[in-house]
Amino acid sequence: MRDSPDPRSSCSDARAGATTDTTAAKAAGKNGIGTMTVASENDALKRREHPKPDTSDAATTPDTMHSEGDGDERENRPPLPPRPSLLNASDRPNTPLSPTKKPALQSKPTTAISSVDIQTLAFPDGTRGTFSTPASRSVSESVSLSGLSVGQSTPSRKVSYNGNGEFDDTTSLMSYAPTLRANGDLASLLDEGLSSQSPAWKLLSSQADTVNPFESIDPQDSPLLNFSHEFDEIEAVDSKGGNEGKLFTCPAGKPIWSRHGDQNLINGYIGIIQTIISFYQEAKDPLMGFTAGGTKFVISTEGPLYFVAISKLGESDVQLRSQLEALYMQILSTLTLPTLKQLFTNRPNTDLRRPLEGTETLLSSLADTFTKGSPSALLSALECLKIRKSQRHVINNTLLRARTDKLLYGLIVAGGRLVSVIRPKRHSLHPSDLSLIFNMLFEAGSVKAGGGENWIPLCLPGFNNKGYLYMYVSFVSAHEDGEAPSERPHTAGSGRNDEIAVLLISADKESFYELKKMREEVVGQLEKNGSMNIIKSAVRQGRPSTSDIVPGTIIRHFLYKSRPNVQFTMPSFSPHFDNLLSRRRLLSLYHNLHASTHAKHSHVKVLHCVGRDSISLAWTTPFFEFYCVAGPNASRSALAQGANKVIQWVKREEERVFIIGGAVF
Amino acid sequence: MAEATAPKPSSSVKLVLLGEAASSLVLRFVNNDFQENKEPTIGAAFLTQKCNLPTRTIKFEIWDTAGQERFASLAPMYYRNAQSALVVYDLTKPTSLIKAKHWVAELQRQASPGIVIALVGNKLDLTNETSGSSNAIGEDGDEAAEPEDDGDARKVSTAEAKTYAEEEGLLFFETSAKNGTNVTEVFTAIANAIPETSLKGARGPGATQSNANRAEDQSRVNLTGPRDNASKEGCAC
Ligand SMILES: Nc1nc2c(ncn2[C@@H]2O[C@H](COP(=O)(O)OP(=O)(O)OP(=O)(O)O)[C@@H](O)[C@H]2O)c(=O)[nH]1
Ligand SMILES: [Mg+2]
């Protein structure tokens, strides 16, 4: 199955069929791979040619650096910017675009052998991310799609493109099907007739119609192989275990915080990275990122701080950058922007570790959430607890009625999902602020583990990065049958899934007792009017599975984001994505679909993607973004039908799965 | 948590916790629990726990504050109205007692004049002293410091801390949140040391206990009750 050329031909055919009216189709057809749109490719090519450092620097910088490390040592040493390859220059015109711009499609006929080229320079306008040879991109992008790795440890790895090639080539098998008929009927767009599969493939499929996504993966090949160790306390940036690291530092070069990696190693990294960064800064052309081998480095500068993400997990630049952004937001949330600035104005040498003391767990859990893969972070949207509209209405009104003068925002959150929000008319709640709060409450465990009620000063950067708000938090366990437990019993391992939190936010630091009283009022009322039980049972029930939603569907998981509401809904990860690894693979797939449909110049509205281990679909309209995945042998039309059914379900349940309008005062 | 067997007058006492290894102490007192790697407190946590004295029930309303520097400016908010304070230091850390002394000084300067302050050296289990029994030395205690064995983690001698506590008129204990040594004793001693006159019933709506026990208003404190005979009485927890 791995070596079968059939899936590829089938996907090429399909794609061509779906895009008959675009030149992209022709271009793609020629290469035997899909491309997004010609427009974006050309654009990017132009852009790539435009900034000078591109060709010249790609050729020159590695010279200054290759003494520091060699490709062959990547296994044991921090991956460093490697030697330039002579092939690069000639490859470049054929080099596919930045992964952030368009989907990764390796196995270009022109692919160079080298896996250790830097061709990835990006520019401060932010429009260009990393671009690289197909070789390195096949690591950074498609690997995550398929879950199959080309292995960081094989410098001599080849990308084969003769059709039946090696596994790393096969893994990249997918089709991105651009179409202009964005809102057409999916089923007809992706008609079964379009996918003319070879008899052999069909035979195989018929034997295993129910293969689930990622089932066929040989885990030995995966860069995610050590994924489960990613969260061990053992620090290992350079060893095989370390797939991902984030660190940030200030201009004086003091590492402030890092996730993974022991301090000595980190210090080494920082020296090198800082040298590279300042090299470009002197040239007034700040470095945004680069790729070395299979390791992607993304750099972002926020005021006095450098943030560096080092990842082998195949996120796109945009995603890594947004993760770094989230870490920065966490720092702002701790310090506020004026304080941060002041610290460095007064003493440029400031060691930020001290003021940030105690927030390490928040930063780490944030980073881990990204590493694990977070639909909420990917979609920049929130998830709500599914309850009836009328039930939510009662809860909203309970909050509104108990509202005190000092209240700014009032929220009820259950199992990391929003139950109800009340807010002043003129202020909305920024999703990134909420994700900081959710991280603190449900992931980091610092608050929850203490028990009791909490009074937490925090800055919500999306609301106002200049000052603190004060948050009253108390937990109610969904598993407690008694009423109004205020001290939640401590259970060390209790996940985020059975916790109901009442959050009351005020700008007045003296308002604790007022908000505490409001909480008592709210919880008392919710218990009286039965809402608390409704919340509890909804939490206990968890998310429905896809087959609960659409009986018999081949869809194994989906994400549906309502754009106007900035909220998303999804089914439970079980039974198909129960463990961390398969969940991460799924999220990587979503990341790729998302990146492809969100590329700047992409007009892709429907994207059908066939991989060796899964087929998937992305569909965007002004109203929603939809992503779903099924096993590799599922048929295109079944996928499309399932997608339509899910979307119909969401439409039907819209007022249950989303908070629409919300309660304002 | 034990309830009083017979209705007794009950009164709330506000207590603020400052210093290092403090949350663990209150976690032991309130939940009878211990976490080996407790995460730092963010902001402050508000907890309640009852303490049964022979003649009355004391309901502690405890503010457990975060130890990090950046929260220090918020501390006055928590000790401003407190009747008692528990200043905890980590007896395995030499600098810890110094920080505790700063807190004591600040409390003496800024908090309400009658505040009862207890100084507590926590992590007694990390010393080699075998006594699970009595390192408790009340204001009037006169136990000598136990000899320190070699190789134990103690960095602050009992004598030093105790001398300081006596000079400043503080209650003094050495405790272990991990194995529970002396934890309830600390709170009982504080409960006993609160002057009658500052004991009131519920202190307005702001101070009402969150759930179970909304009955305080009916149970006004018996101001004539004895208070000093209860030092052997443990807290009901
Ligand atoms: N062995 C031992 N360890 C303890 C004891 N008390 C606390 N610890 C440990 O010391 C560390 C810090 O304890 P905390 O109670 O969180 O200290 P804290 O003062 O609340 O810290 P902040 O909230 O950051 O101010 C934790 O890892 C505890 O497990 C003790 O009695 N014995
Ligand atoms: Mg604490």
From TrEMBL, chain A:
<feature type="domain" description="FUZ/MON1/HPS1 first Longin">
    <location>
        <begin position="252"/>
        <end position="366"/>
    </location>
</feature>
<feature type="compositionally biased region" description="Polar residues">
    <location>
        <begin position="154"/>
        <end position="163"/>
    </location>
</feature>
<keyword id="KW-0926">Vacuole</keyword>
<dbReference type="GO" id="GO:0032585">
    <property type="term" value="C:multivesicular body membrane"/>
</dbReference>
<keyword id="KW-0813">Transport</keyword>
<dbReference type="GO" id="GO:0006914">
    <property type="term" value="P:autophagy"/>
</dbReference>
<dbReference type="InterPro" id="IPR043972">
    <property type="entry name" value="FUZ/MON1/HPS1_longin_1"/>
</dbReference>
<dbReference type="GO" id="GO:0016192">
    <property type="term" value="P:vesicle-mediated transport"/>
</dbReference>
<feature type="compositionally biased region" description="Basic and acidic residues">
    <location>
        <begin position="43"/>
        <end position="55"/>
    </location>
</feature>
<dbReference type="InterPro" id="IPR004353">
    <property type="entry name" value="Mon1"/>
</dbReference>
<feature type="domain" description="FUZ/MON1/HPS1 second Longin">
    <location>
        <begin position="406"/>
        <end position="523"/>
    </location>
</feature>
<dbReference type="GO" id="GO:0000329">
    <property type="term" value="C:fungal-type vacuole membrane"/>
</dbReference>
<comment type="function">
    <text>In complex with CCZ1, is required for multiple vacuole delivery pathways including the cytoplasm to vacuole transport (Cvt), autophagy, pexophagy and endocytosis. The MON1-CCZ1 complex acts at the fusion of vesicles with the vacuole, through its regulation of the SNARE complex during the coordinated priming and docking stages of fusion, and particularly at the stage of tethering/docking.</text>
</comment>
<feature type="domain" description="FUZ/MON1/HPS1 third Longin">
    <location>
        <begin position="555"/>
        <end position="654"/>
    </location>
</feature>
<keyword id="KW-0472">Membrane</keyword>
<feature type="compositionally biased region" description="Low complexity">
    <location>
        <begin position="7"/>
        <end position="30"/>
    </location>
</feature>
<protein>
    <recommendedName>
        <fullName>Vacuolar fusion protein MON1</fullName>
    </recommendedName>
</protein>
<comment type="similarity">
    <text>Belongs to the MON1/SAND family.</text>
</comment>
<keyword id="KW-0072">Autophagy</keyword>
<dbReference type="InterPro" id="IPR043970">
    <property type="entry name" value="FUZ/MON1/HPS1_longin_3"/>
</dbReference>
<keyword id="KW-0653">Protein transport</keyword>
<dbReference type="Pfam" id="PF19037">
    <property type="entry name" value="Fuz_longin_2"/>
</dbReference>
From TrEMBL, chain B:
<keyword id="KW-0547">Nucleotide-binding</keyword>
<dbReference type="GO" id="GO:0003924">
    <property type="term" value="F:GTPase activity"/>
</dbReference>
<dbReference type="InterPro" id="IPR001806">
    <property type="entry name" value="Small_GTPase"/>
</dbReference>
<dbReference type="GO" id="GO:0005525">
    <property type="term" value="F:GTP binding"/>
</dbReference>
<feature type="compositionally biased region" description="Acidic residues">
    <location>
        <begin position="139"/>
        <end position="151"/>
    </location>
</feature>
<feature type="region of interest" description="Disordered">
    <location>
        <begin position="198"/>
        <end position="237"/>
    </location>
</feature>
<dbReference type="Pfam" id="PF00071">
    <property type="entry name" value="Ras"/>
</dbReference>
<protein>
    <submittedName>
        <fullName>Uncharacterized protein</fullName>
    </submittedName>
</protein>
<dbReference type="InterPro" id="IPR027417">
    <property type="entry name" value="P-loop_NTPase"/>
</dbReference>
<dbReference type="InterPro" id="IPR005225">
    <property type="entry name" value="Small_GTP-bd"/>
</dbReference>
<feature type="region of interest" description="Disordered">
    <location>
        <begin position="129"/>
        <end position="156"/>
    </location>
</feature>
